[in-house]
Amino acid sequence: MTKLDVLIIGAGQAGLALGYHLQKTRLRFQLVERNEHIGDTWRRRRYDSLVLFTPRAYSSLPGLPFVGDPDGYPSKDEFAEYLETYARHLNLPAITGTGIQSLERLGDGYCATTDDGAVIEARSVVLATGAFQSPVIPPIGNQLSAEVLQITAGEYRNARQIPAEAVVLVVGDGAAGRDIALELADGHKVLLAAGHTRKLFPQRVLGKSIWWWLDIFGIMRLSAETALGRRMRKAEPFTDKGNTLKDLKDQGVQVLPKLVAAQGQSVTFADGTLAKVTAIVWATGYRDSSAWVAIPEVKDAQGNFVQEQGIAPIPNFYFIGRPWQRSRGSALIMGVGEDAAWITAHIVADLAEVQQLEGMAPRSQPAPLRETGATT
Fold it and tell me: Of 30, 111, 210, 245, which is the most buried if we count CB atoms within 10 A?
């Protein structure tokens, strides 16, 4: 059995950024990652053509710059390699290929059981599992016939998954939905069911990356409680990389309003348009996968996690990497480092307070579990 000060569940960009800051403390911590290799979520669970919508200059974690053209946009595989290099470069204590089957409270701390039955006890826990866990398929999907191929954006890899003769409906016009619709338009008849009005940022303004401007004016650090933050959260803008609705239409994509009904192979849109489809790609978002967390206090009635700025409503339980956790940048690579520093400060203060209440002396020497290393 392993005993820790901090257990970090998930070794994606959020968990690794937290590890960077915890490494500067005297706390014993461990990252546990379900995938066989760090970065596999990007390698194996994203569509092949995906590129980040932030350039390399704004796609690095604290302590290690992203090598390459700072104005260029890295591919998903390039970013996956960066994450693996990051963990190895910092010698972060990461166990890979190990899923957490259950997480429970144990006295004043927590007890995690891995898929192979190993037990990890920790005084505090941080869920760094991200916001893209269980894809959402609207109930309307149940009204479609078995002849309609249905996959999620998380399952989509490339156009070869869709028969060439298929009429494809992509539901959801976020960055992923637009990318997939554009890719499928080369060889398929494609319809896109758009949602609310979105604002796309230009890539460059006055010769500088739009991300430079957003950073310099603190836009990515805006809280959702501010007026501008509320507007941004509603619009969820992303970078225009040739994926405006006009661009899609120019490439032959039929852009339609919200999908409102389905029966068999027939679908109906909010403007009354009817169409017959043979395949659907659901790019309709994600919900939390929380059944493995046997702690009702950190979940609402629908099973979604409950937190405020990364702090759960019970002691020594934290989150990192959640959308709008503290700001617009919380779920972005460029912003997670600041959240990691903030959460680390809370963990250190909270555990020190517990030690003082228990009459324990603060640790004078670090005792990190370094022997496992990061799997390569």
Answer: 30
pLDDT tens digits for 43-99? 998 999 999 989 999 999 999 999 999 999 999 999 999 999 999 999 999 999 999
Q: Which residues pair with 3 in a beta bridge?
A: 121
Element (H, E) at 208: strand 208-209
Q: Which tens digits make up the pLDDT trace of 172-219?
A: 999 999 999 999 999 999 999 997 778 888 999 999 999 999 999 998
Alpha-carbon span 203 to 209, nearest angstrom: 6
Angle at 330 between CA 328 and CA 333, to 5 degrees: 105
3-state secondary structure of 310: coil
Backbone region of residue 360 per phi and psi (left: phi > 0; alpha: psi in -120 to 50; beta: other values):
beta
Largest CA distance in the chain: 72
Alpha helical stretches, state H, the chain: 13-22, 40-44, 76-90, 175-184, 210-216, 227-235, 245-250, 333-357
In this structure, what is the dihedral angle of CA atoms 141, 288, 13, 154, given to the nearest 10 degrees?
-10
Tokens representing residue 285 in the block: 């978002």
The three-state secondary structure class of 303 is coil
303: CB partners within 8 A, 6+ apart: 287, 288, 290, 291
The DSSP symbol for 373 reads -
Tell me the CA end-to-end span of the chain in Å, nearest whole number.
24
- Dump the DSSP string for 22-69: HTTSS--EEEE-SSSSTTHHHHHSS-TT-B-SS-GGGS-BTTBPPPS-
- pTM confidence score: 0.90
**Helix and strand tally (H, E) in the chain?**
8, 21
